[in-house]
Amino acid sequence: MTADELLLEIKSAFERRGGETYGEGVNQTDHALQAGWLAEQAGAPRALIVASLLHDIGHLIHELPQDIAEQGIDTEHESLGSAWLSRHFGPDVTEPVRLHVEAKRYLCVAEPGYFDRLSEASVLSLRLQGGPHKPEEAAAFAAEPYAEQAVKLRHWDEEAKVLGMKTPDFAHFAPLIRASLRAG
């Protein structure tokens, strides 16, 4: 698949399901653009900006209903998204995506006050995703090679829920996506 074909596939996924909300007030497209923009504004490396932009791609490529969490089902979007992205990107993009849910679970015990700042939808999904880490889970997460990047992504994820926030569009991020593609 060429870079142009991949960009078209990503764009199509956002056109198909990006208008859906998931209890946060903003839709998937706005959330993605905000997360990517926050990462860029923080001076994150290119791959982490792309990971932030595409961290919830798993929500856009499954066929489950929009309200699936309210039905008590975890879509495991982080694993689905990471696997999908791994066809085109290396671990510097895919691992923070794979770990961003574990980062939420970790931060609930590692960062005082983090849990209290979670939205209602994030608390619901946290329950479905296993709840806050137990000490041994937190230690295992902290030892992951991309844990630090996943924690940064998770913070941008939480901040990327602002109605009406002005961000660049996907065209702005296209060069970063192209430059982050795995060679070959």
From TrEMBL:
* Pfam families the record matches: HD
All copies of domain HD, residue ranges = 33-105
The organism's superkingdom is given as Bacteria
Q: What is this protein called?
A: Phosphodiesterase
Supply the source organism for this entry: Hypericibacter terrae
